[in-house]
Amino acid sequence: MLPFRARLFLAFSLLWLLFLVGALYLAGRGVEGALRGRLEATLLQDARRAAEAYQRGQAGSLLTTGGVYLHLYTQDGEPLVLSREDHRLPKEALKGAGDGVRWARGFAWTAVPTPLGLLALTAEAEPIERALLALRRALLEAFFLLFPLGTLLVYLTARLATRPLEEAAREIALRSPERLTPIALALPRDELGRMVEAVNALLLALKEARERERTFLAEVGHELRTPLTVLLGHLDRLERNPLDLEGLKTARATAERMRRLVEDLLDLARGEVGLSLNPHILDLKALAEEASREQGVACEGETAEVLGDPDRLLQMLRNLIANAVRAAGKEKVRVRVKKSPPFGLVEVEDEGPGIPEDLLPHVFQRFRKGPGGGTGLGLAVAQAIARAHGGQMEVESAPGRTLFRVRLPLLEED
After folding, report:
1. What is the rounded CA–CA span in Å between residue 383 and residue 161?
2. Cα–Cα nearest to 117, from 76, 61, 56, 63
3. Long-range contacts of range 154-162, CB-CB < 8 Å, 24 or more positions apart?
4. Which label site among 88, 95, 384, 404 has the fewest CB atoms less than 10 Å from its CB?
5. Which residue in 146, 136, 141 sits closest to 17, CA to CA?
6. What b/e readout covers 131-166, taking b as 16+ CB neighbours within 10 angstroms?
């Protein structure tokens, strides 16, 4: 496959060749037509003058233009007077004479009827042929001069036009997973400039994704290391004292926390590649009441039917309510369900200390822990579930009040 610069050069060179050949051909044809037209106009003008002179009986005073010869034939085509023997016209050619200029080998001719017979006027075509030969030679010389010159200009133009593209391609080739820095090229706001901007945006997104991956792995390692260390410590105590029920209880709670952490990580990973849903027609109020009852908080509202996976939606509500209970206690948490077509809303409100202002924009990111603690994954998992159902999740927070609102598409009524 030829490089882009070579393809561009060949394409424009071909266009230049076609343009040059077409222009020279049209120029040659135009000059040839002008010369022939001039000669034909001369012949017709002399023919009219000759006809008028014979009509007035002044044939002796007839003068023709230079290079025009007069010949006289009978009506049957027999020659009476020939100014030039090589301009003799055959009888067949003289039939129907008088309807314009005709061309024979080496000359042009026309004929007009007179009282004495057919008056034929001929003119040499050799001057035109010499002029056309000289013109063709000049056009050929012009072609061999202009084509290389134009091709050189096309090459320089193609080289100049593709230089930014080659620089961009060279810079992109230097990028790798370890080097995701933006391409530092000052380009105008044209197609190439917008392409480089798009590549820079992609590199930035990849760099941020890589940083998030590193941060995620570091945070996972940290979150798992702490409970594992605690668990190993309690196991050592139980090894020395198998009857230490308090140590066994603490070890069990630590193992349960690790299980929840691993499950949240798995759910979050599934959310990123697409959660598998088993949709049913559900009543959001019934789900909210079940999740609230498990946490011992109040729930109120109206029936709102949606299409969704009951296990996933229940998991989402449990995460939201558990997060609120950790922040404010079950007595200060309220759950509400209502309709706001085309959405059904579930609101979980608590009277806790609120989410710090600097943490609020990142509350749905992994391992972002609020005042209530937790694994830092519950809200991220809840948001992934809401999005998988075509819904949205919002948060409002101020000291003394935090509100999480979930919007899910209502089931369309027949």
Report:
1. 49
2. 76
3. 154/9, 154/12, 154/13, 154/16, 155/9, 155/13, 157/12, 158/5, 158/8, 158/9, 158/12, 159/5, 161/8, 162/4, 162/5, 162/8
4. 95
5. 146
6. ebeebeeebeeeeeeebeebbeebbeebeeebebbe
Burial of 335 (0-12, 13-18, 19+ CB in 10 A): buried
Burial 75-108 (b: 16+ CB within 10 A, else e): eebebeebeeeebebeeeebeebeeebbeeeebb
Note whether 310 and 283 are within 8 A (CB): no
- Structure-token pair, residue 381: 């998992």
For residues 309 and 278, is the Cβ–Cβ distance under 8 A? Answer: yes
Condensed to tens digits (0 to 9), the pLDDT of residues 44-101 reads 888 888 777 777 766 555 555 667 888 888 888 888 888 888 888 888 888 766 678 8
Q: Among 381, 255, 247, which Cα is nearest to 311's?
A: 381
| Residue ranges, the chain, pLDDT below 50 | 273
Copy the structure tokens of residue 12.
Answer: 């424009």
Q: Report percent pLDDT > 70 for the chain.
A: 85
